[in-house]
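Q&A FORM
Asked by: J.P.
Topic: structure of Glycosyl hydrolase family 92

PROVIDED:
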Amino acid sequence: MKSLQLALTLLSVGSCCWGRGANADDLTHLVNPQIDTHKSRWFYFSSACRPFGMVNLSPDTSTKGSWNSGYLYDDEFVRCFSHIHAWQMSGIPVMPTTGEFRGHLGMDEYKSRYSHDSEIVHPGYHKLTLERYGIDAELTSTCRTGWHRYTFPAGEAGYVLFDTGAFLAHGGVVASSVSRVGPTEIAGWSLMERTSRRPKDTRVFFVARFSRPFEEFLSWVGGELTLGAAGVEGAEAGSAVRFAASADRQVIVKIGISYTSIEGARRNLDAEASHWDFDRVRRESTQEWNEWLSRIRVTGGHPEHRIKLYTDLWHALLGRRIVSDADGSYCDMTRTRPRIQRKRLNAQGEPVYAHYAFDALWGSHWSLNILWTLAYPDVADGFCNTMVDMYRDGGLIPRGPSGGNYTYVMIGDPAAPFFAAAHNKGIRGYDVDAAYEGLRKNAFPGGIRDRAGYEHQANAGGGGIKHYVDLGYVPEDMGGGGAHRDGAAMTLEYAYQDWCLAQLARSLGKDSDYNLFMKRSQNYRSLWDGEARLVRPRMKDGSWMPGFTPTGKGMSCRGFCESNSMIYSHFVPHDMKGLIGIAGGAEAYATRLNESFEQSASSRFVADHGRHAEKLVDYDNQPGTAMAHLFNYAGKPWLSQKWVREVKLKAHGDTTPYGGYHGDEDQGQMGALGVLMAIGLFQVDGGAGSDSVYEITAPLFDEVRVQLHGAYFPGGEFRIVARNQSLENCYIQSAALNGRELNRCWLSHSEVAAGGTLELVLGASPNRSWGLEPPPSR
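REPLIED BY: S.T.
REPLY: Here is the structure written out as tokens.
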């Protein structure tokens, strides 16, 4: 395999020092942050970052656009080191320079060439040389503070720029302010301009401290430089400090950020950065990453697969961001004016959970929901708490909050499967009654399903929920504003989300709601065309939408959000038995699904972003990421074993800077999916059932050990042992659970949570008599 050969080559060269000097206990050396960085999104790459860190510090080689921005592997120049790489959020760009001062002229004038030859990249640490200036730059972080260590050339004065008014990623900066506080400290803020997704201007504050006094404070507005001022404020404003040449060539800069206030940023610095030991912070970051990564341990398998597994896991713990201060304060932007709120505190006066910002959980039922509720239930608890707090603050359980704003990104109410998976696995460290109240509100007019994608106006209606309630489906001619107004996709996702609400209602003893939502969960049948054996969009008068085609061109086929009918027609994760029945039975269903995979192998089972409507199978986007596992429900588990392995290797197996995620990793979702396929566990129902099941496929490793969080699950550890594991041996010949024969292709969550050992015997040919009993589907 070319990708395997290249990955092994990269392990031995200086440009990928993540593969050198490793020991068995340091899993961070199995993470390659540079995978697929040739064409990444702003939030994709954050090297000097803690898990879910508020600070996501890394070099920026491209600073304009949500796509193809941030750190791009083939770019030759570093423009700045900025502290926020989040969905719809950016801020606080910093850059060291020497020689003639050009900071006020913009990044095009002060950027510097760098080389991968001297670059070191690990989780929590990044080092490179700015060749134009001869400066060695090192970056690390705590959760809320960014640490820079700059080694300047001997005998030269140096500057550290704070280009706080510069355009970064998603939009411009309305205004910024920086003030000199003392000879070793400056402070300020940037006001990020609103975007089409984040509807309000959003402020980020910072305090920067230096390890030695600076000689001069410089500032500028609109390119006009001022010397000696005490501060600066305005549009296109920025500042810098100058250090005299010194025998001590190093300057350490530690920067605290906050979304509440300058004092909040200062408190974050005091709480997390009370010393000046850069190497200690780096060691502590490595230790923290190892604690998180070690919840899943693997042995055996190809080195390439171990690298991709831990890189996938790193992404699943990286992309979504903490936005609350160390004391639990956070900025609520759900109403007309910003308000400072505070998280619940424990008996010691510490926040019980952090507050998070994140892109929509759209599609996370087949990725993060499963992984987090299995190996990181404390994370799932924290996200549930954030959504309940936002319900109390602004009246809605969010779809995807950014900087305290509601964003209405994508469609539907993906929080429903998230809460159902958490609650039904015993993850309940939040106000469950408030959560259910908010989720129920979302399922009717006036809730989040009333809003189509990015529909911010007061009188929303593009989500079509009233039509869904009245007609049993969302018509394609529903009207209203917003994006992604795709009636068939909305109908299918609402039906699944209704089933998830039914599971919650049953757990809470709400029988009438259970019956209501179970009935509504069958609404997918309203759009089933028995002759075509596909889901088809309907109009308000009940007629089929004219001009229907199973696939299309570009992003979306009309009626289907970033996909098409050939993919969305399988989107019934809550009732696969019912779907297979109306599709002509198990044999007919499996035959057609298998044909789709066979025809998609040459394109590696991906459409690549921007062409999602064109393919029969698309593992580059959320709606189709369960399809390989659906053969289990048609009584042909060997086909799931075959296609899961093929998809994992072809679609997401690359470990070079030129593949692995196809540019749309979506804040850990594709990473989490990669982890699940690699360890051989998946949940088609998203884990939302009252005792949901894990479908089993062959892992890529000899042994997988999942550490079970003792506060949630009693079992201690769940092990998967794969006998005869190899690339070719993807078929399960036999299985045993805790020493007893297992002749089904699934395990219940309660069996996994109890701990123990699943032993699989693998082979190169299918065993067509093993595991034929389909997983429960209700």
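FOLLOW-UP: The longest helix spans residues 487-507.
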